[in-house]
Amino acid sequence: MKRSLAPSSALSASKKTKFIPPFVSQTSSSLPLSNIQSQSGPLSRPAVKNTNKASASSEPKAASYYQVMWCKHSSKKHKKWEGDAILMTRGSSATLTDTEGKVIGKATGYKLSELSGLVEGSTLVVGGKQIEVMDVVSEENWKNGTCFTGALAAPKNSVSVVEQPLALRKPFAVPSLSGQTMKHTTTPRVVQPLHDPSLRGSLVMPRPTAQHQLEHNISGLALVDVVVDPHLSRCLRPHQRDGVIFLYECVMGMRDYAGSGAILADEMGLGKTLQCITLLWTLLKQGPYGRKQVARRVVIVTPGSLVKNWEKEFGKWLGKERLMVFAVTADNRLEEFVKSPRYPVVIISYEMFLRTHESLRELKFDVIVCDEGHRLKNNATKTTTLIMSLPTRKRIVLTGTPIQNDLQEFFSIIEFCNPGMLGSRSAFHRVYEQPIMAGKEPSATAEEKDIASRRADELNRLISQFFLRRTQAINHQYLLPKVESVVFCSLSPLQTSLYSHLAQAQLQRLRTSHSNDMSQHLVCIGALKKLCNSPSLLFTAAQANSDHSDENSVMYDVLPLFPPGFSPTEDVTQHSGKLRVLRDILRYLFNHTQEKVAVVSNYTQTLDLLERLCGECGYECARLDGSTPSSKRMQLVEHLNSQYTPQMVFLLSSKAGGVGLNLIGASRLILYDIDWNPANDLQVLWG
């Protein structure tokens, strides 16, 4: 009997492309993603509980898996198959799962001989759907999820090609009146690399494969070595050279995945900006085919506080003579960039991109770089949607914290970088996220943990083709060891009294209240954080709420606990244990060292207190927070980093200044309060 061809028979397991190992740094280990490696998930269970103990004991525990095609059950002779699926049989039960991991049918009560005798061509009815077995799926492929990802991720077609020299065209023959032809003899043009690849320390990019040449060199241009400008390559550390090669292979489509995007997720302080500048300068000046430039225009999207920093970094490494960069600011409008073709690189903030996206779409950029790419973790935001709508295929994401909360955020970044690489969001959730997270549950079975581990390994294998992450351990050979100290500060008597009152009052409200409003817990925690920073912050908040305070308010009946005549403007350290400790630390540093100090807080009101403390102690200080104009931020950073600036305290808001600023002038950093998200504190520590 002649059977219809399954919709994805071309993607059968026997024809999958050969896996190419992920990029490995020669100087340090290339970490796939520690957050994923440590996670673990669940296996679909039979829907019907067998109450027959005798038959249950005789059923085999092991499951079998098959690749099938399915359609609605009918009596028609010629079936119209609707899709592919995976059939799992266990004992007398069968479960049908589509290629996105969704269960589309279940049935039980089969004879053991019916299910154990399934071979290619066998038919079965499961949950109102008729199936035909195509092939057997191994238990390994089920547990690691490759039976699903064969249809989810579209791997690059692998064609066996013998590399041959390009055939020379026949020389042009000039016609003549005499009927004879005059041969136009010209020697083929020899194209030399832009820089000498034989020089010591030169950085030469990998040559494209024969398959790549077939797909991308249709005109038959001469193959030329792409050599990084020695002006930059001599400044690169070994791990940065490896990073540039990795990014080049990704954006040029030389790696074994269907896409041209890359994620550089090195931890903070490893030089992601320099690696990116090196790559962009190389793409703007040369290419492997006829030395033609790969990119003509590049857009860099970055947080507003880093626009000037990127402009400065380009000037630092390349100078203004080599490359003209246009930074979109309040003074430099995008319209000026549109009118002038002199600028191949434009730097713009995420907020400005949102306002000018229509003009940017018309410019047709060849490469887009998203700095602090974890800003793209939510595909539902308008900014992310508009950036994803750009037709640019070469996309680079720079981030030191690719995962902050869950795998769905990580999926959003991957989807921007290489759309469709991991299938749909729902498929990713069912095939990877759900099993991995289920395997971490305390009640997870050994089988669920095994599946979770294998799914995590397979996910790591897939993303390692375009995802590169190195740790701070690389810098140990270049920098002095970092010393971290956690200082516990005793509460003052007033703080102890207020803390006890707030905690007991909230507990009493929980016992007597019939409301389901859980927001009061967060309000109480916020009040306790203010109290720990300084009682004056709590006093000010209680005064502001005194007019419309009720018994259910966190601030209710707080003001009477303060001593008579209390003033938030008096000696800032009198009633705050943390401020006393900070004062003593600063006093020691200013008396025994010449080091500059950065003090970081999450709250502007706390920065106000710290600024008053510096004034009372006579310490010079500068402040950078959300209200600081973007044009002034780089001036403050340069003032701190200058060797001619005297010892000072640099007050910094973690939200406004904790992203991408190079505060190399401060050798001491004090986190006055910690954030809900540990990744934000790490971002501040490493910049």
Description:
- It comes from Geodia barretti.
- Residues 24-42 have a biased composition (Polar residues).
- Residues 253-420 form the Helicase ATP-binding domain.
- By secondary structure, this protein is of the alpha/beta class.
- The chain has four domains: 7-46 and 59-153 and 422-470, no CATH class; 201-421, Tandem AAA-ATPase domain (Rossmann fold), CATH 3.40.50.10810; 493-510 and 518-561, no CATH class; 577-686, P-loop containing nucleotide triphosphate hydrolases (Rossmann fold, 3-Layer(aba) Sandwich).
- Helix content is 37%, strand content 14%.
- The protein is built from 24 helices and 19 strands.
- The protein is flat.
- Mean pLDDT is 81; it is low at 1-60 and 157-169.
Low-confidence blocks of residues? 1-60, 157-169
Shape: flat
Q: What is the CA-atom radius of gyration, in angstroms?
A: 32 Å
Write down the oligomeric state. single chain
- What is the name of the CATH superfamily of the largest domain? Tandem AAA-ATPase domain
How helix-rich are the residues, as a percent range?
Answer: 25-40%
Domain Helicase C-terminal: 581-687
Pfam family, one: SNF2-rel_dom
GO biological process, one term: reciprocal meiotic recombination
GO cellular component, one term: nucleus
